[in-house]
Amino acid sequence: KTSMVNVDVNSAVIEAFQGFQVELDTRNDTYERIVKLSRDITIESKRLIFLLHRVTGSDDRDSILTDAAARMLELRTSKFLPLAKELKGQDPYQFLRAFSPGLQEYIESVTFYHYLADNQLASLDSIQTGLTFTLQDSNGNQNDLPKNLQVKNSAPRKLPDECIGNSDVPPSLKTLSDENKQDIQNRDVASEECLQGQNCTTDKAVAAETFDCESLQTVSVPVPPTEYMLGVADFTGELMKMAINSVGSGDLRTPRIVAEMMRTIHDAFASIGNIPRELRHKLRVLRQSLQKVETACYTMKVRGSEIPSHMLADVFSTAGTG
Amino acid sequence: KTSMVNVDVNSAVIEAFQGFQVELDTRNDTYERIVKLSRDITIESKRLIFLLHRVTGSDDRDSILTDAAARMLELRTSKFLPLAKELKGQDPYQFLRAFSPGLQEYIESVTFYHYLADNQLASLDSIQTGLTFTLQDSNGNQNDLPKNLQVKNSAPRKLPDECIGNSDVPPSLKTLSDENKQDIQNRDVASEECLQGQNCTTDKAVAAETFDCESLQTVSVPVPPTEYMLGVADFTGELMKMAINSVGSGDLRTPRIVAEMMRTIHDAFASIGNIPRELRHKLRVLRQSLQKVETACYTMKVRGSEIPSHMLADVFSTAGTG
Amino acid sequence: MSSTAEIFNNFQDYLNADYDLREEIRAVVRDLEQSAREIQTTLQAIHQPSKSTGYEEICQSALSMFSKVKENYAVLATKIPSNQYYRYNDHWKFVTQRLIYLCALIVYLRDESLVSRETVASMLGVKTNREDGFHIDLDDYLMGVLNLTSELSRLAMNAVTAGDYSRPLRISHFIGELDAGFRLLNLKNDALRKRFDGLKYDVKRCEEVVYDLTIRGLVGREEKAE
Amino acid sequence: MSSTAEIFNNFQDYLNADYDLREEIRAVVRDLEQSAREIQTTLQAIHQPSKSTGYEEICQSALSMFSKVKENYAVLATKIPSNQYYRYNDHWKFVTQRLIYLCALIVYLRDESLVSRETVASMLGVKTNREDGFHIDLDDYLMGVLNLTSELSRLAMNAVTAGDYSRPLRISHFIGELDAGFRLLNLKNDALRKRFDGLKYDVKRCEEVVYDLTIRGLVGREEKAE
Amino acid sequence: MSSTAEIFNNFQDYLNADYDLREEIRAVVRDLEQSAREIQTTLQAIHQPSKSTGYEEICQSALSMFSKVKENYAVLATKIPSNQYYRYNDHWKFVTQRLIYLCALIVYLRDESLVSRETVASMLGVKTNREDGFHIDLDDYLMGVLNLTSELSRLAMNAVTAGDYSRPLRISHFIGELDAGFRLLNLKNDALRKRFDGLKYDVKRCEEVVYDLTIRGLVGREEKAE
Amino acid sequence: MSSTAEIFNNFQDYLNADYDLREEIRAVVRDLEQSAREIQTTLQAIHQPSKSTGYEEICQSALSMFSKVKENYAVLATKIPSNQYYRYNDHWKFVTQRLIYLCALIVYLRDESLVSRETVASMLGVKTNREDGFHIDLDDYLMGVLNLTSELSRLAMNAVTAGDYSRPLRISHFIGELDAGFRLLNLKNDALRKRFDGLKYDVKRCEEVVYDLTIRGLVGREEKAE
Amino acid sequence: MSSTAEIFNNFQDYLNADYDLREEIRAVVRDLEQSAREIQTTLQAIHQPSKSTGYEEICQSALSMFSKVKENYAVLATKIPSNQYYRYNDHWKFVTQRLIYLCALIVYLRDESLVSRETVASMLGVKTNREDGFHIDLDDYLMGVLNLTSELSRLAMNAVTAGDYSRPLRISHFIGELDAGFRLLNLKNDALRKRFDGLKYDVKRCEEVVYDLTIRGLVGREEKAE
Amino acid sequence: MSSTAEIFNNFQDYLNADYDLREEIRAVVRDLEQSAREIQTTLQAIHQPSKSTGYEEICQSALSMFSKVKENYAVLATKIPSNQYYRYNDHWKFVTQRLIYLCALIVYLRDESLVSRETVASMLGVKTNREDGFHIDLDDYLMGVLNLTSELSRLAMNAVTAGDYSRPLRISHFIGELDAGFRLLNLKNDALRKRFDGLKYDVKRCEEVVYDLTIRGLVGREEKAE
Ligand SMILES: [Mn+2]
Ligand SMILES: [Mn+2]
Fold it and tell me: Can you tell me the mean pLDDT for H69-81?
């Protein structure tokens, strides 16, 4: 060799880079674990959506919804809780691309579930509440090693189930009082966690009593509003499928109701400015979906016009029970 | 409802589809597990390649290679063995897309390692041997449930380490006798497993004695030749980087040797017909890499031409030690 | 011969063998496509209500063309190594889906029931399960069944045109059952999912025909209750 | 107000706030870019061997421009909520890398050593660690350092033109150390990796300059051993 | 100062002026877009068959929003020198097409006739002809009209759903006239031509609605003859 | 002059000739497109049931425009050397397909039969066979015929709107025949095949119209048996 | 005539006029491109060191070809209304940049100075300022100048090949000045900015040539100090 | 038989003939590609500086492989009717360009001159002119020549590595001549033009090699003057 630079492995430069190596590897490992959780969430959320579509034309609507709620709870406990722990103390936006696909699909499924249950949009708050978890340190100490944290979901009655995913309880329980509402743009994750923690304990005073609030820690998977809206936009695609499926099941009422809902969402999206690019594409799809449902409504109207007068009462009475 | 079809949940159709559901879910779950293993393999293989590049300009070449070999063995045991178990009894081509990225990156790293160790291409056979695993059923029975299978790697001396990934032992041990060579296109996984099993036991007769061959099972991750070649093509990119790095370290010999190797591979690829499309793109990259190395050789030649005659001996003597 | 040269020579042999095999597969697939086209053309007669030939006759005629199909699948089966079905799969995927659909159509026209995978396999002369050799892929079977539904929804309408008012009801019931079956499945975002998304329109179309008949009193309530 | 309307109204507020914030960020970033351009132009003088001003003077002049940079980062820091650094990151990523490179260049010119993250942070008036607030991203720091190497390899050549034969050796040694450092890292296939792939050419170029000097006897062997 | 430096010296002013002007244009365009969105949202009510508000009311409400639009165009007009309209054209092209479409929709809803360029110009507060200053480009006018047709074909269906059986006939007639009008034009292979190619789907959709109504006797022959 | 320069010397003439010829072809093709547009516009009248003019009149008027088309093809024929037809083919391929479709439409409207290649050739003033000179390519003929089917399926619907209930049945029968004809052909995976895949939608649409008429008793059984 | 038809009636004239004008522009631009190619070919001789012709002669010969260029710009100027310069701008933008580069090259070869916009304008026979009519856009001028730098960096090398060791130093100095000039400008993220990013490679290449000459003692220190 | 069926009846023969012919062409083209690959591999040896075989030997060996190429072109020529050359052109266009490039490379290596179209034609066993039958298209010839330049610029470098310092000068001169030749041509905006735009990089690369050699005194002035 003519002039090989003999690098001193103990030099300050090398020492610094050894630190960088650890930092980069740690971050990449975290990223990879989050990607895997996100993939699992995507798969289960898709399956949930399939399950929810079985409601159309089924006699067993309630048991399907109950089943779905149980699986959502399980999904939150088994996948979102580990995800929340990964994100604890991190800037969630640093890993957003890693969990965004799963989160959006989950929002889509939750929104669909809530529409079936309540006939309305699940709010961002309620979804965020479902993804906020209260943990108890087994020693009552602050200790952020995940293995020492225990989900108190398994302890019956001590911590109400709603603390781990309380978005599936009837809507009345979820309504936030006005003073708790915060401007979406101003909230940050910290205050959000706090808010949810309070909700948990104030909504069910009994549960709060048995608890030392100091030993409670909350972790959460934050739901950025844009992710929420992307999930909502996808949800309208499921609405469309449901509407057409309804016609196939002889249910002539659902398409009109769904059209109304979709039109509301469509017009709301159309009136929004500064809209992010990813959302803009989905709105084109939404517009197409809406027209499919409108066409179905049109067809039903036109066909319905031919009902001979002597059959009218008969048809309507059966349609009413659908 | 006017005419809702009341589907009989016990109908033959529904019954059949319940079976399909299980079949599809099982397959998709397998696919997903394989994808995750592949991602892990990709990451570790990339890190191995980074590690191997540290050989350039290092005094510590041997310990780096030893380190790399150990990590490759660990990678095979911890990721490829589970992958092989997943693929057991399956048509591997059904899941090829799921593990192809990881496999190719692994081939790239192994090929790079072998080039550094032996100055030649690792053969497909040797790579395949490394991905063929001998398992012992703990009860001595045929039992294909993965949980009952034990890797005998941990049992010292009983089964030589080479059985699990013997591609890193010195080349002399790996040379297959001529009668064992099979036409690449004719081999199938079954005969491959058998062949490897024999190799394992015949190469080290001592090990074979302590063993009941009947209770041995081999599983493997098959390496389709095209995947192998895709890995080899990527490997040439690493060769290029190494050649340029060498110049930076004052090593004037390596670029010429590397150029020779790359030209051989380049010309060999160029002479091949019926080439798969994925490979064709990589050959354009290979051509560019080759030209970069050729340019480096050219520059060294041109600059070398200026050496004053009184310095010639001096320069060459130092260059020789590089 | 240097080892690099050896490696590449082996690879060339591999690629050539692969190329030749694919050419052979393509030739067989071309024959299968020709058969499928002919069977399809024969079965199209079911939509032509003015033709005097009945379904039974049409099916008979279509079935007689399957012997050539079987021969071709037999040839294909000998060409494909047991663990490489999915390596070459793409070549015959499409025509197999089409032939499955044609089997399903014939079986429906005769028995008004869903053809099983076993029956399809025996009609095409292949295995039902992967383990046993050249087989029918589940996805292809499902795709074939989905193609059946759109043909049947078309038939429901043309049956009315031909004056047959009870068939649409039976078709509607059958497609409804299929729809319920498919809704049990968790499909990935692939071709199958996309095709399944279209199924709801077939269901809807049948429902509309039944509706048209019902409001005109062309079917009795008892028939629907069946 | 219906709840859907409420939901969308909130979302509009959110988007508007986001838009306004991004506009403000863009304005600050524009100022930072202007500063970076001016500092860069000042530092370009190191390549002009005919200019009589020394490195020290050039660095001094460049450093004086950093007070405005600090002010701008201070403004930026107040605008970005603590856990949303990576949400808006893209806006200042590029200019920050450039400013880090300029810090690194100044520090090298003065001390011939690698600027630490802490020093960069204090030169820009930001935090070193994420936990403490608006900070320097590791990737951006590394990118800035990589940009330094190409500038230094250019400087090695221009130093020779200006008759300074010892500097290239020191630069070559320094870049060699950086190269060894970077090779410790496991980079993903991203912008950093791509830029790192170019580092080897900088190393090579310096080596060539040293070679040119060596064969002409323009540097003593002892200097290299240093 | 070298002559090169001299030449460059006043370029920056020019570039800054251009940059600033574009920023100002963007701000106005953003306001126009906001207005367009509000008008559009208001007009969407025509598709809500359940809403009790009539077209007249809806149009009235939409029209009241145009005063702000006019103001913005007035601002824009003062900013753009007459010989640079086409230099900055791209900024407002899209929103102008959208506003033209909204004008056309309102005029159609009120008079069931095609809005003229003059009317559009007066609704937006700009000139009709290029010579007179800030104007509406013919291409933009035609694009706006083409956007009208798809909205009307949607309205035709939703009107039926709402029980209005005569409107679709009038819409179909109107779109047919537009189609004939556009056919006369020899459009280049540009955005306009591409959009025109989509018009035939609107024509067809309306024809289908008319067909559906006719075959069910929901419209009389005399209505169609009108 | 070097031999290289010599070799290049007369290439420019060749390239210029090619360029000029293409310009001339483009000019003729532009005229053909204009004619096609006019003929198409004229024929659109068949869908407007309120117009008093009958098909015969419309066809007559369309036919009179073919003399200009013939002239243009004659010009084209003189420009294209027989062995370079396929070299420049792409320029007129599209407009020729469109004109063939227009010929096919006129012939159908008059005779309710499929136009033959010979008739098309004589209408356009070109040869039927390649050997005889400037001719109609079979692919273009088939493509033109396929374009006819979608126009006819639209006509079937509009005929009902105009109160003509028997025409849809005849159209449905005709399109069924075309479908059977195309099914016989083993098309490659090209534009033609893709377009043929669209034919089934036209068949279905016609069947739907016939269904609509039948279920409402608007056509007698005897008509369908025809 | 319906009011719709009325509205459409005179649009065609407008569209045709636009189409014709574009065709005419294209024809002139084609001539300009031909001239640019010829001038460029003539100037290529500066890189061929064996040719006996000097720069002066080459420039003279190139300059003589500008009369045709001027004529073409004169024609263009008469065709373009002053308020539509930017409407048709895209047609001649590219060739104008190329001609500006050729002007700049000639002026540099003669005077070793940067051509001014005024000089370019007078060489091309157009106006300097927008207000005065058909003019040179500043962007195009800057782009032309940027194209000059890569040609000069090539010339620096070829000059060495031809044994001229002092020219590269002067070129390096000149390009350095241009680099400093462009650095002053705050360019938007457009084509100009992108092209400017390429300038640093030209700077570097010249520096390398100077380095090569210096290390071999082929230029004296005094020359560089100049 | 209906007239429609009649019309369709003999189309299949036509389509089959076309399909079969294309298959046959593809088979011949595959053989040509195989030959081209072998010749190319043989010629690659010129870049191996360590190999002892001279150019003459390499060329001889490559030339011997052309007899098979000629045979294949002879087969092709018999298959393609003279008026359909351009119909099937796309099949062999690419391999022909490659073989022309190989001819050009061999001729250059032997004579250091540009192969003429006549020579290429005779090496491939085809006609030079279109009129005489199966020929070489000018475009393909020019493309082949352009491919030669990048191979030669690579050779220029590798020759230096192998210690041959005079060849690069001759190559640079030759490529310069080709560049001048192509500059004369007014190429359309097609593949040829795009490829020609790449030629300037080859020119520059060769100039750089000559520069490197010159500045180190590795070539004498007299050699360059040659
Ligand atoms: Mn979805
Ligand atoms: Mn790699």
Answer: 96
